[in-house]
Amino acid sequence: MAGVSGLIVRASTEADVARCAEIYRHHVLHGTASFEVDPPDLAEMKKRRAAVLDLGLPHLVAERAGRVMGYAYAGNWRPRPAYKFSVEDSIYIDNEAVGQGVGKALLPVLIEQCTAAGKRQMVAVIGDSAQTPSIRLHASCGFEMTGTLKSIGFKFGRWLDSVLMQRALGVGDTTPPLA
């Protein structure tokens, strides 16, 4: 589907995983969006994508002129059965494309597809309270701030917060789920 600034948002393919790994590698090595410290290899990134798809959840990419500029996916919020209607989103944007609307193109599609999959809540766990672009993106898509875990991680020689944001999907908690 066509999107913002010539971006096309679509389901990822296995051929996209190498580019996703490249994008993620930059975030692991240079940023605080991920609390990982060693970038996963291509085989691990393929396993992670397959695990998302096995759950029936979306794994999306945004591309411009045939080049993947970012990716997003949803995973289970927690493994216990009572959480089965809640997901956590993850979005990673090419460092050169930050601020160009890639996240704004990906997140609404992710929300829509998770809603269609019967999910009722989406949680964003934003690495570091200094990640204001991610906080603004989520707020612009209807997420509300639910809390901050202070100094929960340690990376690059400093303590990092995790910001928690949440939004209802579809009817949210207004009715009991059918399944």
Tell me what the structure shows.
This protein is of the alpha+beta class. It has one domain: 3-Layer(aba) Sandwich (Aminopeptidase). Helix content is 28%, strand content 33%. The protein has four helices and seven strands. A hairpin with a 2-residue loop joins strand 2 (59-64) and strand 3 (67-76). Helix 1 crosses helix 2 (42-54). The longest helix is centred in the middle third of the chain and has 15 residues, at 102-116. The radius of gyration is 16 Å and the shape is globular. The two termini are 30 Å apart. The model has no long low-confidence stretch (mean pLDDT 94).
Short note summarizing the structure:
Helix content is 28%, strand content 33%. The chain has helices spanning 17-30, 42-54, 102-116, 132-140, and strands at residues 7-11, 59-64, 67-76, 86-93, 121-127, 144-155, 158-168. Helix 1 crosses helix 2 (42-54).
Write the layout of secondary structure elements.
Blueprint: E1 7-11, H1 17-30, H2 42-54, E2 59-64, E3 67-76, E4 86-93, H3 102-116, E5 121-127, H4 132-140, E6 144-155, E7 158-168
Parallel strand pairs: 4-5
Antiparallel strand pairs: 1-2, 2-3, 3-4, 5-7, 6-7
From the structure above, extract its key features:
4 helices, Aminopeptidase, single chain, 33% strand, 7-stranded mixed sheet, 179 residues, 7 strands, alpha+beta
